[in-house]
Amino acid sequence: MAVVEVKDLKKSFGSLEVLKRISFEVERNEVIAVIGPSGSGKSTMLRSLVHLEEVEGGSISIQGSYLVQDGTYVKAKDLKEITSKMGMVFQQFNLFPHLTVIQNLELAPKLLKQAATEGYRKRAMDLLEKVGLADKADVFPSKLSGGQKQRVAIARALMMNPEILLFDEPTSALDPELTGEVLDVMKDLAKEHMTMIVVTHEMEFARDVADRVLFMDQGEIVEAGSPDELFGNPQKERTKAFLSRTMRNRRNE
Amino acid sequence: MSLDYLLTILKPMLEGAQATILLFLVAIIVSIPLGFLLTLAVRSSVKPVAWLAHAYIYLMRGTPLLLQLLVIVFGLPLIPGIGEYLVLDRFVAACIGFILNYAAYFAEIFRGGLLAIDKGQYEAAQVLGLNRWQTTTKVVLPQMFRIALPAVANESVTLVKDTALLYAVAVPELLHFAQTAVNRDFTIVPFFLAALIYLLITMVLTLFFKWLERRMQFE
Predict the structure, then answer these.
(1) DSSP SS3 for A27
(2) CA distance linking residue A176 with residue A249, whole number of Å
(3) Residue B3 DSSP symbol
């Protein structure tokens, strides 16, 4: 059974249709890369999975439980239960600036009383170790580089033991030389079979790490397939045009 | 100019300064929480509450503090029927006036602090599973107070100087005793002395807020 099932998702901002009957499924342990031009609805689609955006029609089901069914959302309590299975990493990190790195990690599990208090610190330190920032546990986010901030944000999301991790352009706000350290952490997660949906402009990451790539344009999934299929032999004109545009930009950089 | 003279006029002036400092402390301790409640009222989803809060802030910021003090101290007792019940100790009445007025200013300062918080903070809190109360108390308010701190410090210094308005409602305070001494002894010295005492108070206040800002540096 698919862990994420999205069917006929619809949303508009005023007269602009940002999602036009989007449908796709994600299997357990799959890494999905979502690519496409700016304004194609990628982020809106991702954000609607955790209810940061409300859709007007269609269904989203997470591990068999409906978050929204034919445009009708479940009760607030169930909604929270279902979205709690997902973690999210934002383009702008959204770390809490008034808390130290380790406090950022511990805040939510402490408030939600997930385990005994002494458990948090060990788990937080283990995760910081994992993203290579154990030595930064007691500093404030303002002292970190963008890449370090994003790695902390990933560790913070992992603290909640998510079944599915969503990434909304996790490297787009970073200087080019800092994207590597973040992508490396994401690659490690993929190797550990974390189920991930990654909205990204990093074509190499999509090609090397993703199991499947979705190409979105103007609120639709134009084409979906394995990285080999999509990058090697795109079927649709819009996909070809986007890929050649992106690759040309890459060469010009 | 003898040291004896300075000491003679200093004594009543320091007593006056006590009234000044007491008013300042009462006003700041009560008006900051009240201002924060007003901020919440302004943002309330219950429309009449929000309108009332807006109207209150408009009234308090749109009229002179001096007028408000005169109304509370001398005006209210003149209201037919209920006026006799509104005769308060002048100092108490003045405290109420300062609190009501400054709460409106603090409300606007805190509102500015809330507006400065990025919406990504709310989104991160939501995705991590925090409820509204947890998000407000653990994520939003600590940041709001930090952002508002320099403006709160500024407003506090203004409050110290505004206490001189007590003069107009005939509550003896620092400036009152200075003026009395000037009239009696025909010398400018008491004014300078008063200025020195005000400067001393604002310096202590400034140092306190600087210390608080450093402590809340988040670095």
Answers:
(1) coil
(2) 14
(3) H
Residue of B nearest to A49 (CA): B127
Contact status, residue B218 vs residue A142, Cβ threshold 8 Å: yes
Question: For the whole model, what pTM was predicted?
Answer: 0.86
Q: Assess B4–A contact: CB distance below 8 Å, yes or no.
A: no
pLDDT digits (tens, 9 = 90+) for B42-74: 988 899 999 999 999 999 999 999 999 999 999
Tell me which residue has tokens 């001096």.
Answer: B66
How far is Cα B165 from Cα B175, in angstroms, rounded to an integer?
A: 9
Give the N- to C-terminal CA distance of chain A in Å, as an integer.
42
Nearest alpha carbon to residue A217 among A198, A233, A241, A235: A241
Take residue A58 and report the two structure tokens written for it.
């269609």
Written as six digits, the tokens of A5 are 């099932």
Cα(A211)–Cα(B114) distance, integer angstroms: 42
Between the CA atoms of B38, B41, B47 and B48, what dihedral angle is there, to the nearest 10 degrees?
Answer: -50
How far is residue B179's CA from residue B187's CA, in Å, rounded to a whole number?
10
Going by C-alpha positions, the residue among B101, B106, B22 that lies closest to residue B68 is B101
Rounded-to-integer distance, Cα A159 and Cα B195, Å:
57
Task: Using CB atoms, pick whichever of B128, B129, B143 lies closest to residue A97.
Answer: B143
Residues near A64 by beta carbon (within 8 Å), at least 6 away in sequence: A1
